[in-house]
Design brief:
single chain; 158 residues; OB fold (Dihydrolipoamide Acetyltransferase, E2P); five-stranded mixed β-barrel; 4 helices; 29% helix; 34% strand; DUF4920; signal; DUF4920 domain-containing protein
Amino acid sequence: MKALTLWVAAILLAATTYAQQSAIKPAAAGVTYGKAVTKDKAITLASLNQELKKDTIYTGKVAGEVTEVCTKKGCFIKLKQANGEDIMVRFKDYAYFMPQNIVGKKVVIEGAAKVSETSVERLRHYAADAGKSQKEIAKISKPKKDVTIMADGVLVTE
């Protein structure tokens, strides 16, 4: 009886996980995830970096292009900067997730951005979630200072 209960629980958990992924709307212009977001007053990533030189936190809208998404469940995305460094975007309270087809799409993110230091352990975790190889993950050996955004909502614009 105990084995049957565990088996049923495992099936329900797997079904719930699959349903969550299949319930995520595919990325297309006009689709919003999380809080409703509009394009008005969104700044560029270059402007965001200038704002963060003046203050430790920026709250508002930022426009950018998605370069990466968490392959496990869409729990983070990265935005492309001109200098080659990506900006990590996570979602407030993990209240929503991103679809796998969002890479290459232009988005407007609303939330709070700040400069922070990401530990080696966290960088390796993100790399594993992004589907990086063990060899690539092993190369991560020092913490990284970078801009992170905690998003309340994401609007796909293109």
